[in-house]
Amino acid sequence: MTYNFSLFWRMSVRSIFRSANTHGALTRKRIIFLLLFYTFWPPMVIFTWACLLLDDVLFPAYRRQPVERPLFILGNFRSGSTFLHRLLARDSTTFTGLRTWDIFLMPSITQRRLFHALGRVDAWLGGPVMRLLRRFDARYFGAVRIHKIGLFEPEEDEMILMYAWSSFFIGFLFPFLDEIPPYQFFDTEIPKADRLRIMKFYRACLQRHLYATGGGRHFIAKNPVFSAKVGTLLEIFPDARIVYLVRNPLDMLPSTISWLSYAWHVSSDPQEKYPYRDDVLAWTQYWYDHPLDVLDQNPSPLHMILNFEDLIRCPDAIIRELYTRFSYPSGRDLELILRDAVVETRSHESTHVYNYEEMGFSREQIVREFAGIFERFGFDQRGEVPVEQGAVAGKKKCIEDPTRTS
Q1: Domains, the chain, with CATH or none
Q2: Residue 11: CA atoms inside 13 Å, Cβ hemisphere, count?
């Protein structure tokens, strides 16, 4: 059995009996969250695992489903991976990936068949359930700040590992990082047997998805957490295409800390506004250094190290290079997707303003802690410099080599 019952038990005991003076103390918000979690999550897990086991009986051919030339987008949080992922996912003739809906409600082929049958009944009745779901999606998921979430949007499929209770995201629901295995340092601090157990479960989920959707397309995923798993990822998927995004640490770190603070405050009342600052600093450094080391030691045309600023400056040049380098066929909607990319980067304007000192850092400290990244990529040490309106694909300001690494 792949499910980590031991960790689930430890999280439960810690939450109920040993949470005083922690970021997960039993406040009113925390109690409400735990009541909702234990009402809905265990039945979902039991039902999902029953369906996963049924897959082996009803659809055993999925185990022979190839996962050919999958594309994995890596990088620290807040480094442009969502933009690139959702842009490429629009090319539905070339790529397929998991949406929030797929991750939490349909990890198995059996569930997909069941929900699709129910969907046909709902459509025959005029679609009342689908309308309700879309209203729920707009009201609750649409209210999430910083990172746009939606039931029908492509999402980080690291979350499918919640069904093995072996995911970094457990730490957002149960903010006891001292109790959780160091998934943020996956390749070097998780025992090999556990690494293979987790990633083989992930691969089987991808096989199920490809089998259920008819095959013939390339799987696409973006997972910042997989920056820590890049070595194991290449072991499990030897023909994987990797895009590793690098953003200026002066922009990445405060944006990441702000986002994580928001996530932790959804389900608990942490003792600080910005919990685990030192931990976040440590793993963001690892998520820069480790994947760059692995990719440097395994040079391949199947790997692309991409500067975030170049992606924003020249999105269509980047995407054309990606398709060519990775031997992906151009979907019928590619030209429209490229036009949209240029429009979106032109119109994008960040509304987030961060206070380094309030977060416990200084600009000088961040530059010092990430000195190697600043040196390698030549990032401006003053922080984010707005992209000029003219700096788009097809202009002289667009770089000649959109995948340069230094």
Answers
A1: 5-377 (3.40.50.300)
A2: 22
